[in-house]
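Hi L.,

As promised, Nicotinate-nucleotide--dimethylbenzimidazole phosphoribosyltransferase:
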Amino acid sequence: MSQQELEQRIIEITASISPLFSESIEAAEQRLNSLTKPPGSLGKLEEIARQVAGITGEIAPDLAKRAVIVMAGDHGVCEEGISAFPAEVTPQMVMNFLAGGAAVNVLARGAGADVFCVDMGVNADLAHDSLINCKTRKGTANMTREAAMAREEALAAIIGGYELTEKLSREQGYRMFATGEMGIGNTTASAALCTVLGSMTPDEAVGLGTGINEERRKHKVDVVCRAIACNTPDARDPLDVLAKVGGLEIAGLVGVILGAAANRCLVVIDGFISSAAALVAASIAPEAAAYMIGSHLSQEQGHRKLMEQIGLSPMIHLDMRLGEGTGAVLGFHFIDAAVRIMREMATFESAGVSRG
Ligand SMILES: O=C(O)c1ccc[n+]([C@@H]2O[C@H](COP(=O)([O-])O)[C@@H](O)[C@H]2O)c1
Ligand SMILES: Cc1cc2nc[nH]c2cc1C
């Protein structure tokens, strides 16, 4: 596809995302109020139940087909010494995902989810039967010196994530997705996205990532400032920002989120990097935000403010900061709980319990 065709495709995708079904939200609300509990007493589970109904059009949908999509990509900005780990961990962890040994594999098995691992731009030649190849380039450029990627590359990566998600939904019946990622250096790119597209200062957006100390965090703040000064991304054009200071796996996740929303699927958002992708997706297509469900609050310091800016509230607080989709997959358990409440709870009428 030419750049013009890719741009046109994004416009079409954005236009295809519909608001939630309001009648189904009302039906869910009525059902919740008929169940044997004081109104509203199941808190966020009730909110989730209404949102699930609005997304799918069903009060208690079958969400057995669920997947976590782990997008992997490398970051040229690692040259600046912004991570506690070397860049070669990205391809090494991809092989670990494919072997089933990473945290996300374990938690996905516990939540009945399938793991799809995608090479969006790992800086290595990887070959494995189960690896989905969506590589646009071998890692981004060092964004303190030039744009992380060309606009066309960012567009192609979004479309890659979109098409994968659409295919999984339409051809294989997946109805619930978790966003996952792996990319040494990607908390730096995410912090830059939050600074330009969110209303955060670099100092608020930059955290410790995989575990740097405060002195290195200060240096990371300076790296984010230099990347923004070098590229002057246009905050009114989220695709420009994504291309200049984002990442290939982040672009892939933007596509996953848009693909889920366009196909009326739930998309459960993981930690800081996934939420940065969610911010980009909501900046491109505001209607997509209604399909997002926040999972956990990451320890990465910018995450709380980022979630607030997207309008997401985390279901769980477990002091995690791993990424991979681990928090999002745990979130599946709470969505299952909300659906089960809708399906199995007795009503005041059926149980013969008096209303207040
Ligand atoms: O999801 C999070 O909130 C999160 C917070 C800190 C680190 N990570 C993971 O750690 C890697 C990025 O950290 P860093 O320090 O290399 O920028 C990347 O692979 C992420 O999946 C993830
Ligand atoms: C080992 C390791 C596993 C990860 N998973 C996601 N990010 C990660 C970063 C490191 C360093």
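The first helix runs from residue 3 to 16.

Thanks again for sending the construct details.

K.
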